[in-house]
Amino acid sequence: MNLKVEMEHHRKTLIVRLSGELDHHTADHVRLQLDESIQRGQTEHLVLSFKDLQFMDSSGLGVILGRYKLIKSKGGKMAVCDVNEAVYRLLDMSGLFKIMPIYDNEGQALSGLEVVS
């Protein structure tokens, strides 16, 4: 299965919606797209929406953690939202929720990061 990446800027927050599978086949492509968008734009914060993400492996975790370090180095915040049960288990086991908040939806994530108009 392929991975679809949709990006939208909301103020200084990049919202990234992933659909499909984030695995070793798609991780490098996603990493490059996110890095380019973060470096090119006025991105301070990052919200990753996993509403339509069916699968993620350790390569996907690497993408998330790398972007977390990049956003933190710029003084920003990062959150994930709309996580299904299978992906949630992986993120929880990895300890990701100890460093990054999880929200039910994009609106709550934007509110939680205090970037709502």
Automatic annotation (TrEMBL):
<keyword id="KW-0749">Sporulation</keyword>
<dbReference type="InterPro" id="IPR036513">
    <property type="entry name" value="STAS_dom_sf"/>
</dbReference>
<dbReference type="InterPro" id="IPR002645">
    <property type="entry name" value="STAS_dom"/>
</dbReference>
<dbReference type="Pfam" id="PF01740">
    <property type="entry name" value="STAS"/>
</dbReference>
<keyword id="KW-0597">Phosphoprotein</keyword>
<feature type="domain" description="STAS">
    <location>
        <begin position="3"/>
        <end position="113"/>
    </location>
</feature>
<protein>
    <recommendedName>
        <fullName>Anti-sigma F factor antagonist</fullName>
    </recommendedName>
</protein>
<comment type="function">
    <text>In the phosphorylated form it could act as an anti-anti-sigma factor that counteracts SpoIIAB and thus releases sigma f from inhibition.</text>
</comment>
<dbReference type="InterPro" id="IPR014237">
    <property type="entry name" value="Anti-sigma_F_ant"/>
</dbReference>
<dbReference type="InterPro" id="IPR003658">
    <property type="entry name" value="Anti-sigma_ant"/>
</dbReference>
<comment type="similarity">
    <text>Belongs to the anti-sigma-factor antagonist family.</text>
</comment>
